[in-house]
Write a structure and sequence with these properties.
Blueprint: H1 4-36, H2 40-48, H3 50-77, H4 79-106, H5 108-115, H6 121-134, H7 137-153, H8 158-182, H9 184-200, H10 203-206, H11 221-252, H12 259-295, H13 297-334, H14 341-356, H15 358-373, H16 377-402, H17 404-429, H18 437-466, H19 471-492, H20 496-506
Helix pairs in contact: 1-8, 1-12, 2-6, 2-12, 3-4, 3-7, 3-11, 3-12, 4-7, 5-6, 6-9, 7-9, 8-9, 11-16, 11-17, 12-13, 12-14, 12-15, 12-17, 13-14, 13-15, 13-18, 13-19, 14-17, 15-17, 16-17, 18-19
C-alpha cells in the first residue's frame, strides 16, 4: 500500500498535469467563446453535446469507478487472471457502447426534442445534425475510461491525467482550423477526434498489463453477470448525475437566449479548482481507499475521513476567491470576441452560486467513491436519484426568481444534501465505540467555517480597492491575500490538515 508521502507526491504530479490540461481547457473554451459567444449557435452545440456526454459519462464513469475494486480484488488472487478478465470486461462494454451509439443514431430526433424543448424548428434541426456527428465519441470515451481505471488501479496516474490535455489540444486545433470554413460542425468533429485522443495516449501502457480485446464471453458468463450486478447501480448513479446537467440545460432553454451557454461557461470555470486541485486528490486516494476497504471498515474509515478533511481544507480558499472575484475571473477567461460584457453578467449570475457550493461538488464525488470502495453501490445510487429529484424541483422553482443563477443554486443545494446524506450514512454505520474518529472532522469543519467567514469578510471589505488595478493584477492581489490569510489563520487555529502537510514537507 502506498505511503502518505507517496500519495502526496502523486497528487502533486497529477495536479501539475491537470493544471496544464485545465489551462488548455480554458484556452479551448475561450476560443469557442470567441467564435460563438453566448449565442444561439453556442447553445445548440452545448445541448447537442449533452446526449453523447450523458451516455459516455454514465457508462465510462461507472466503468472507471467499478473497475478498480474488481481489478484489485482479482489481482490479489491472480494478476494474470485479473488482466484477462478486465480485457473481457472491456471488450463487452465496447460492444455495449457500439450498440448504444447505433440505437441513438436511429432515435436522435426524439432525443434532441426531449433535451431541448425550448428550441425552434431550425435550432432543433442543427442540434440533431451535431448530435449525430458527436455520438461515435461514446466508443472512444468508454475505452478511455476503462484504460484509466486499469492504470489508476496499478498506481499509474500520469497518463490518465494527460487525457484532458490531449483532448483539449485536439479541440483547439479543430476549432481554429474548421470553425471558419465549416462553422459549428467543425467544432463537433473536433469533439469526436478529442475523444479518440484520450484512449490513444493510454493504449501503449495497457500492453504492459496484457489488456487486449477478448470477445469470447461464454467462458466468463457467470463472472460478467456478477460484475453487471455490481456495476448497474454505479452506472445508474453516473446517469443520474448527468441528468442534473440535462435538467439544468432543459430549464435554461426556457430562459433568455444565451442562458445555456452561460450555465456551461460558469460550470467550466467552477471545475478549474476542482480539476486542478481537488479531483487529483480524489483520484489518487481512491485505489488506496479500496485497499483499506478490503482490509477492514475501521482502516477504510480512518483514511476516508482524512481525505475528507483535506478536501475541505483545500476547497475553502478557492471558494472565497471565486466568490470575491467571480466577475473578473469570467471576464479574464472568456470576455473577448463574441463574448461581451452582457454575456459575462449572465454567466456571473450562475457562477456566484456555483462558487458558494464548491466544497460540496468535491465532497459528493469523493464520498461516492468511498461507497463504491465499500461496495455500497445501491446506497450511492439512491442518493443520486434523490439528488436528481431535488434538483428538478429546486431548479424549476428557483429559476423563476433568480434566472440562470437559480439553476446553479439548485445544483449546489442538491450536492450539499447528497453529501450530507452519504456522510450521515457512514456515521450511522460506524459502531458507537469507533465514532471518536468523527470528532476531528467536526472540529476541523468548525474551524474552517470560522476561518472562511473571517477571511471572506476581510476580502469583501478590501476588494473595492483592488478594482482600481488591471483585472489580472486584481486577481493576483485577491488570491495572495486570501491564501496568505488562510494559511495564517490555519496555523493560529491549528488546523490538522495544514499540520499534516507541513510534517510531510519536512521529511
Amino acid at each position: 500500500m502506498p505511503t502518505l508521502s507517496h500519495v502526496v507526491k502523486s497528487v502533486g504530479l497529477v495536479t501539475i498535469i491537470a493544471a496544464v490540461g485545465k489551462v488548455l481547457g480554458f484556452g479551448r473554451e475561450s476560443i469557442i467563446a470567441a467564435y460563438f459567444g453566448a449565442s444561439s449557435t453556442a447553445d445548440i452545440f452545448f445541448v447537442a453535446s449533452l446526449i453523447p456526454t450523458i451516455l459516455f459519462t454514465a457508462l465510462g464513469s461507472g466503468l472507471q469507478a467499478g473497475v478498480i475494486p474488481i481489478y484489485l480484488e482479482k489481482k490479489a488472487e491472480n494478476p494474470r487472471k485479473a488482466d484477462e478478465f478486465i480485457s473481457v470486461l472491456g471488450s463487452f462494454f465496447m460492444l455495449v457502447a457500439v450498440v448504444m451509439t447505433i440505437v441513438c443514431l436511429f432515435f436522435t430526433k426524439p432525443l434532441v426534442m426531449m433535451v431541448a424543448p425550448g428550441f425552434s424548428g431550425s435550432e432543433l434541426a442543427l442540434t440533431e445534425v451535431l448530435t449525430r456527428i458527436m455520438l461515435p465519441s461514446l466508443l472512444f470515451f468508454t475505452l478511455a475510461y476503462m484504460a484509466t481505471g486499469v492504470l489508476n488501479a496499478n498506481q499509474r496516474f500520469l497518463l490518465p491525467a494527460f487525457t484532458s490535455t490531449a483532448q483539449n489540444i485536439v479541440i483547439i486545433v479543430a476549432t481554429v482550423l474548421f470553425a471558419a470554413p465549416f462553422g459549428v460542425k467543425g467544432l463537433a468533429w473536433g469533439f469526436v477526434f478529442g475523444a479518440a485522443s484520450q484512449f490513444i495516449i493510454q493504449y501503449p501502457s495497457l500492453k504492459k498489463y496484457q489488456i487486449r480485446p477478448i470477445f469470447s464471453f461464454r467462458p466468463y458468463k457467470q463472472q460478467i453477470n456478477n460484475t453487471l450486478i455490481t456495476f448497474y447501480p454505479i452506472i445508474i448513479a453516473a446517469l443520474a448525475i448527468q441528468l442534473n446537467s440535462v435538467v439544468d440545460r432543459i430549464i435554461a432553454t426556457s430562459l433568455e437566449t444565451g442562458s445555456v451557454s452561460a450555465l456551461n461557461y460558469a460550470n467550466r470555470l467552477l471545475w478549474l479548482p476542482l480539476s486542478i486541485v481537488l479531483t487529483p486528490l480524489i483520484t489518487v486516494l481512491y485505489p488506496s481507499i479500496v485497499e483499506r476497504a478490503i482490509e477492514g471498515y475501521q482502516s477504510f474509515l480512518t483514511l476516508t475521513l482524512k481525505g475528507l478533511k483535506s478536501l475541505l481544507f483545500l476547497a475553502v480558499p478557492f471558494m472565497i476567491v471565486m466568490l470575491i472575484s467571480g466577475n473578473s475571473l469570467i471576464a479574464l477567461a472568456f470576455q473577448r470576441g463574441a463574448f461581451d460584457a452582457s454575456a459575462t453578467e449572465t454567466t456571473y449570475a450562475a457562477f456566484f452560486f456555483y462558487s458558494a457550493c464548491l466544497p460540496f461538488f468535491a465532497l459528493r464525488d469523493y464520498l461516492m467513491n468511498a461507497f463504491y470502495a465499500l461496495k455500497k453501490t445501491k446506497v450511492a445510487m439512491y442518493s443520486c436519484l434523490i439528488a436528481v429529484l431535488l434538483n428538478v424541483l429546486l431548479s424549476w422553482g428557483l429559476s423563476r426568481f433568480l434566472g440562470v443563477g437559480g439553476i446553479a443554486l439548485a445544483s449546489g443545494i442538491s450536492m450539499f444534501l447528497q453529501s450530507l446524506f452519504l456522510f450521515s450514512f457512514l456515521w450511522l454505520k460506524t459502531k458507537k465505540s469507533d465514532k471518536a474518529v468523527f470528532t476531528d472532522v467536526f472540529q476541523e469543519s468548525s474551524k474552517l467555517i470560522i476561518i472562511g467567514a473571517i477571511i471572506y469578510g476581510l476580502a469583501l471589505w478590501i476588494h473595492p480597492i483592488t478594482l482600481k488595478f488591471h483585472i489580472f493584477v486584481e486577481l493576483v492581489i485577491v488570491s495572495l491575500m486570501v491564501f496568505g490569510l488562510y494559511i495564517l489563520f490555519s496555523m493560529l487555529f491549528k488546523v490538522s490538515s495544514l499540520q499534516a502537510l507541513r510534517k510531510i514537507r519536512s521529511k
